[in-house]
């Protein structure tokens, strides 16, 4: 029996308890059972809403981190030996949702991530993100080599930045629509 089936059975039980109270069966403990059933139903509804919004929340978090990374690439376009980085969105979302596909080969134009080893106490950690999506961060492959060793291609970075901003707006519009639907359901429209 799946988790949803158990929730449905529990809700049906709670509804039958409620119908006993409304039909006049006011035995001892009935109101206590009704209060517990009501609290349980509220908890189940909140859990369901959390589950519904969880994927969108994680996807927006990954998109925001990617936007910061792309902005960093653009800001460092003239920095010698700067290596452009990006997030493999599919791998990061899979890892965030509990999957284990962060070691998938890089997306088009992405080289595999290169972890840095700290072999001595004084070594710095290197270029790191906030830690949440480290396994999905990749160095972008060079399309056109620069004399100073910088791998930032402004055309690619601007296009990726605009595309990511558009996807963030689309996700926010979707979330707004979900909240409007929930609000209409609560108001009984």
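Sequence proposed for the structure above (189 residues):
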């Amino acid at each position: 029996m799946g988790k949803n089936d158990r929730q449905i059975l529990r809700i049906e039980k709670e509804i039958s308890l409620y119908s006993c109270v409304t039909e006049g069966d006011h035995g001892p403990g009935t109101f206590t059972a009704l209060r517990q059933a009501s609290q349980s139903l509220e908890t189940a509804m909140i859990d369901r809403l959390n589950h519904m919004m969880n994927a969108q929340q994680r996807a927006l978090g990954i998109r925001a981190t990617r936007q910061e990374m792309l902005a960093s690439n653009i800001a460092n376009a003239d920095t010698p030996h700067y290596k452009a980085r990006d997030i493999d969105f599919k791998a990061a979302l899979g890892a965030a949702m509990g999957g284990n596909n962060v070691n998938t080969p890089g997306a088009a134009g992405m080289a595999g991530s290169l972890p840095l080893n700290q072999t001595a106490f004084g070594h710095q950690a290197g270029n790191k993100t906030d830690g949440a999506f480290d396994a999905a961060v990749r160095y972008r492959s060079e399309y056109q080599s620069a004399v100073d060793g910088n791998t930032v291609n402004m055309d690619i970075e601007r296009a990726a930045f605009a595309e990511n901003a558009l996807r963030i707006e689309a996700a926010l519009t979707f979330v707004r629509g979900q909240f409007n639907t929930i609000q209409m359901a609560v108001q009984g429209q």
